């Protein structure tokens, strides 16, 4: 039995522990990072589709789901989520806060797949991005900044977060609302106010802090396909 099964208390991971989950899964269990990202994206897209399917997501006159993607693995999650939603007939469009040419690793792989699928991708800021906002999407997916973020959000990403918060839309944060420090729960000047946060593996330590509550919305924890032994090893060491 894993440690996760021995208590009804929710599992909470620090920033360092969250990183170790991926590290141990990749280095010790031989699971490629792209597999972990794929599992995370598929499970997140399932929740999005099932929870919001009544919003006519298949309308094609304009994108119904806008996905804002950053430059790290969180952005890679966003591009993979877009693929899975598109495969289910959802009208998606992608706002690239970081040029695809600057992406590396697993994030670049998923960007290139989205590009070859001819999914609509526009750089932020651009007239196309503003037009998509003005057309009234049903859902905004935040895949900008992940667990590694701390401090303040810099331009032009801060403007994108402000734009996301300003429209009447269902906002979904992937892993952590962008601008929120996952370790301390401290929000930056520009922080996504999510209606739903889909986080991976376990809650983050900052989520239990009062300052984080206005930004999280409902929180759903999803699996990334790492064996339970990975989490047991991470939880056996503090930090």
Explain how this protein is built.
The protein is an alpha/beta fold. It has a single domain (33-232), classed as Rossmann fold (3-Layer(aba) Sandwich). Helices cover 38% and strands 15% of the residues. The chain has helices at 15-27, 33-52, 73-87, 105-116, 127-134, 157-166, 213-216, 228-235, and strands at 12-13, 65-69, 92-96, 121-123, 139-143, 170-174, 196-200, 203-204, 218-222. The strands form two sheets. It has a seven-stranded parallel sheet, with helices on both faces. A two-stranded parallel ribbon has the order 1-8.
Which structural category fits the helices and strands? alpha/beta
Beta-strand content estimate: 15-25%
Give the full name of the CATH homologous superfamily: YjeF N-terminal domain
N- and C-termini, Cα separation: 23 Å
Give a short account of the largest sheet: 7 strands, parallel
Mean pLDDT: 94
The radius of gyration is: 17 Å
Oligomeric form: single chain
Count of DSSP-assigned helices: 8
The CATH level-2 architecture is identified as: 3-Layer(aba) Sandwich
Count of domain modules: 1
**Spatial strand arrangement across the major sheet:** 4-3-2-5-6-7-9
Low-confidence stretches: 1-7
CATH class: Alpha Beta
Care to count the β-strands? 9
């Amino acid at each position: 039995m894993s440690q996760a099964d021995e208590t009804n208390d929710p599992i909470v991971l620090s920033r360092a522990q969250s990183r170790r989950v991926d590290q141990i899964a990749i280095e010790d269990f031989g699971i490629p990072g792209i597999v972990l990202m794929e599992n995370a994206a598929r499970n997140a897209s399932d929740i999005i589709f099932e929870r919001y399917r009544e919003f006519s997501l298949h309308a094609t006159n304009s994108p119904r789901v806008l996905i804002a993607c950053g430059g790290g693995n969180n952005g890679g999650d966003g591009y993979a989520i877009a693929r899975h939603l598109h495969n289910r007939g959802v009208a998606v469009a992608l706002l690239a806060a970081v040029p695809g040419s600057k992406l590396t690793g697993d994030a670049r792989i998923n960007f290139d797949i989205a590009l070859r699928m001819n999914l609509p991708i526009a750089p932020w800021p651009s007239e196309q991005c503003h037009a998509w906002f003005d057309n009234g999407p049903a859902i905004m997916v935040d895949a900008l900044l992940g667990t590694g973020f701390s401090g303040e959000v810099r331009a032009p990403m801060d403007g994108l977060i402000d734009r996301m918060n300003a429209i009447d839309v269902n906002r979904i944060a992937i892993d952590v609302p962008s601008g929120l420090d996952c370790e301390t729960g401290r929000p930056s000047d520009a922080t996504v106010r999510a209606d739903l946060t889909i986080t991976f593996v376990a809650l983050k330590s900052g989520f239990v802090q009062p300052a984080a509550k206005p930004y999280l919305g409902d929180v759903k924890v999803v699996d990334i396909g790492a064996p339970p032994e990975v989490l047991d090893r991470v939880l056996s060491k503090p930090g």
